[in-house]
Amino acid sequence: MNRILIVGIDTVAGRSLAEQLSGTFNVTGLWFSTPTTVSGCAVARVNKTALNEYLVDAATIIFCGAASQSSWNRSFGTFRPEEKWLTPCVLAAKAFGSRMVFVSSDAVFAGPWVFHDDDSMVHSEESSAQQLRGFESEVQALTDSLIVRTNIVDSEGVVQQALRAVENGRTVSVDACTYATPVAQDEFASSLVECLKAGMRGYVNIAGAERTSAFQLVTILATNLECDTRRVVAKFSADQPVERSLRCLRLRNELNKRSSLLKDTVEHLADSVTARRQQVTAA
């Protein structure tokens, strides 16, 4: 595991992982569209030349593409990085005996259960879910692979975008139908690092402990930051709830790790908002 290649270091998941791994391991990061630097980490834009150069020496390949963003985000559902770059990474992992890690999404699920275990079957007929299952199956075919399902909320996703609208005096409608178990980016990264160190294979859920909707989370965060919650309006776009919540049994049973509570995730998001406000004031 000493040589790690993160494909998609410009994603929230990729950047957070690089920040936690670079002090201990030899980490290289390839970015898709946004130049990204992390202290102690070599970086380059992803292309065929860079992949050929870095895949050969990588003991572990971690792919963080469009699937690694929160499935609540408006941009979710277009998987261009996976379509273009996942197969070359899988083929290289097979050829060179590398370990392959794919950060997938809770969007493979839409029910029928409220909570989904690490090994739960996928029954969703949504096109994005079927695409994700195709990517997962490609990685699963490798001897040494780990597929991570998650829902990472961060300083740039739908929750923060909605809050900025409220701060600016605008009314915003937020999805109240799709339920998930969101996790903060730092908590996600630290959990995945533990999974890697433990040599975990197969499927693993990394998520928070409590089920919520984007609307509920935005409302709680707005209350925490003393914003006008009357400007947060629930949007009901489905006849019944879409259930994507994850139960993290492998983290608890194999690593003795508890999922973070919703209040911890809210505190993390509130801290990022406070830091942003301070930067604006200083400028």
C-alpha geometry: globular
CATH class: Alpha Beta
Overall pLDDT confidence = 93
Strand order of the largest sheet: 3-2-1-4-5-7-12
The fourth-level CATH homologous superfamily is NAD(P)-binding Rossmann-like Domain
Q: How many domains, in number, for the residues?
A: 1
Order of helices and strands: EHEEHEHEEHEEHEEEHEEHEEEHH
Estimate the helix proportion, in percent.
25-40%
Distance between the termini: 42 Å
SSE topology sketch:
Elements: E1 3-7, H1 12-21, E2 26-31, E3 42-45, H2 48-55, E4 60-63, H3 80-96, E5 99-103, E6 115-116, H4 127-140, E7 145-150, E8 152-153, H5 158-167, E9 172-175, E10 178-180, E11 183-184, H6 185-197, E12 202-206, E13 212-213, H7 214-224, E14 232-235, E15 242-243, E16 245-246, H8 249-255, H9 262-282
Helix pairs in contact: 1-6, 5-7, 7-9
Task: Explain what this protein looks like in three dimensions.
The chain is an alpha/beta fold and 283 residues long. The protein is built from 9 helices and 16 strands. It has a single domain, classed as NAD(P)-binding Rossmann-like Domain (Rossmann fold). It has helices spanning 12-21, 48-55, 80-96, 127-140, 158-167, 185-197, 214-224, 249-255, 262-282; strands at residues 3-7, 26-31, 42-45, 60-63, 99-103, 115-116, 145-150, 152-153, 172-175, 178-180, 183-184, 202-206, 212-213, 232-235, 242-243, 245-246. Helix 7 crosses helix 9 (262-282). The model has no long low-confidence stretch (mean pLDDT 93).
